[in-house]
From TrEMBL:
CDD domains: MoeA (cd00887). It catalyses: adenylyl-molybdopterin + molybdate = Mo-molybdopterin + AMP + H(+). Gene3D superfamilies: MoaB/Mog-like domain (3.40.980.10), MoeA, C-terminal, domain IV (2.40.340.10), Molybdopterin biosynthesis moea protein, domain 2 (3.90.105.10), Molybdopterin biosynthesis moea protein, domain 3 (2.170.190.11). It is an enzyme of class 2 (transferase). This is Molybdopterin molybdenumtransferase. Pathway: Cofactor biosynthesis; molybdopterin biosynthesis. SMART domains: MoCF_biosynth.
Length: 401
């Protein structure tokens, strides 16, 4: 019997659990990046407010600040000066109003602001042209947005423009994030050689580099355009050097030119699991070597894509410390599908949004080598014999982007 045969396939939930356990045991080194470069990075620590917001009582609009009782009893009030954002205003003279701009600090002695267009100017004095606003109107109070010490960003948060704005308002110039994991992608097989009789362009390495780079990995690509064991081993060692994670495609099944497993075992790698009961993607094999996790993906592009989406992507999110899984998308199934017993089958679908919510439709595919199906799909559905899909039921799709 072939020692590399798929004799003990693990099921999909078990395989994913093993992959995430490998990720949880990985180190998460921290670095700091300029705030403007933080989008897409994962916060490596909680970030707390060093000042409250607003830092003082401020005006919510352009207008006039005054003491409510004084305006109610003695309008119009003479205008004494103007306060703009950034000023440290002098106290308001009793019986006076002051012009004020949005974001400017409320002078001591004032407890009301009215918009300029709601005031009547009488010489150098002002009075309400509409009903007098309530005491405290149009004043943003100190700390009403958040207090000093408030957690602004939680450890594990994937940062975007919203967090950049929030942290910039605190005066931060850089932010602590987890270091981007270094991923080496190695495509192998004699068919990748330019001079091969039936040469094939390598779509797997660019595909995986794009997919994994989009979630924050630093990806380098390598090729072993040969079926020679010694030559493949040289290329694999080069790919492993300097990498935290290695992803190979091809050479992991049981054919006469499938050498990846033997090469890695000879290097001392330990097998986490050999083969998964999924379709497509059964040959997926995961190993550990010198503190690195190695994902050996099938060579067929469709199968490689599914394995990367369902295993490598969640692994990387965990390694980077992202605290939430990628959210699934609810939709009503527009088709029926079953899966063989003991197998999780992944089906590409499109999502169509209507007045009653999203509906998903199956994307036709010719199998594990199909790549055009993914360009037409929005999500993947997992189907098992125990959980088939029936038209009209609500299903949850894993987004492809």
């Amino acid at each position: 019997m072939n020692g590399n045969a798929f004799t003990r396939l693990v099921d999909y939930p078990t395989a994913l659990r093993l992959v995430l356990a490998c990720a949880a045991g990985s180190a998460r080194p921290m670095t700091r990046v300029p705030l403007a470069q933080a989008t897409g990075r994962v916060a490596a620590a909680d970030i707390l407010a060093t000042t409250c917001r607003p830092p003082a009582d401020i005006s919510a609009m352009d207008g006039y600040a005054f003491a409510h009782d004084a305006m109610a009893a003695h309008a119009p009030l003479p205008v004494a000066g103007r306060t703009v954002a950034g000023d440290r205003p002098e106290p308001l003279a009793p019986g006076h109003a002051r012009a004020i701009l949005t974001g400017a600090r409320i002078p001591a002695g004032a407890d009301c602001v009215m918009a300029a267009e709601r005031m009547a100017v009488v010489g150098h004095a002002v009075a309400p042209a509409t009903p007098l606003a309530a005491r405290g109107a149009n004043i943003r109070r100190q700390g009403e947005e958040f207090a000093t010490g408030t957690r602004l960003v939680a450890r594990g948060q994937v940062l975007d423009w919203r967090h950049v704005a929030l942290l910039a308002a605190q005066g931060l110039r850089d932010v602590p994030v987890t270091r981007r994991p270094r991923v080496s992608v190695l495509s192998n097989g004699a068919e990748l050689a330019a001079g091969a009789a039936s040469a094939c362009p390598d779509s797997n390495a660019p595909m995986l580099a794009s997919m994994l780079g989009a979630i924050g990995a630093r990806v380098s690509t390598h090729a072993a355009p040969t079926d020679d064991v010694a030559a493949q081993a040289v290329h694999l060692r080069a790919a492993i050097g300097g990498a935290d994670i290695v992803v190979t495609t091809g050479g992991i099944s049981v054919g006469g030119t499938d050498h990846m497993l033997d090469i890695l075992r000879d290097m001392g790698a330990d097998v986490v699991f050999r083969g998964v009961a999924i379709r497509p993607g059964r040959p997926l094999t995961v190993l550990e070597l010198g503190g690195r996790t190695i994902f050996c993906l099938p060579g067929n592009p469709g199968a490689a894509a599914i394995c990367a989406l369902m295993f490598v992507r969640p692994y990387l999110r965990t390694v980077m410390g992202a605290d939430t899984p990628q959210p699934a998308i609810p939709a009503t199934a527009g088709f029926t599908a079953d899966a063989p017993a003991g197998v999780t089958q992944f089906i590409p679908v499109t999502l169509h949004h209507g007045p009653d919510g999203a509906c998903c439709r199956r994307v036709p595919t010719v199998g594990a080598s199909d790549i055009i199906a993914f360009s037409r799909a929005d999500a993947l559905l997992a189907v098992t014999a125990e959980n088939p899909i029936r038209a009209g039921q609500v299903v949850w799709g894993m987004p492809l982007s």
